[in-house]
Amino acid sequence: LDCYPNRRRASKNLGAHACLDPQSPGVLEQVRACLKDAPSALGADLAFEVSGNPEGLNQALAVTGFHGRVVIGSWYGKKRAHLDLGSDFHRSRIRLISSQVSTIEPALTGRWQKPRLLEWAWQMIQEVNPVRLISHSFPFSQASQAYALLDQSPGEAIQVILTYP
Known about the structure:
alpha/beta
């Protein structure tokens, strides 16, 4: 789900099966329709919420199935998130998992140390080739223009980077 058509098109070009506007009427029903042929027709096994928008988190909860997981990869800062923990959340045993990239999850530290994590991350970067997602590049001296783009026309950007001399 993404609010911006440019990003939805990019997702489709990268192989997404469906790309929907989270603000469109009936979007949750559309997501559920996409999941009807999945192994668990009762909802998603795993949902990622990376928007930083509390409504996005509620949408992720709404489409997650029994004993499913919602990974929260967003940073809400001081923003409060009013969550719908009624309806199916409790009965479906949905798990909320916070994601933090600066540390290794304590349960995994016996097997994953920083060198192994970095090696795996570099392998994934080579596989994903994220350079193809860069839509705008600005020299550091023009950082204010990059931030203006993100603030005033976020739908035009997929990934904005700052380059250093």
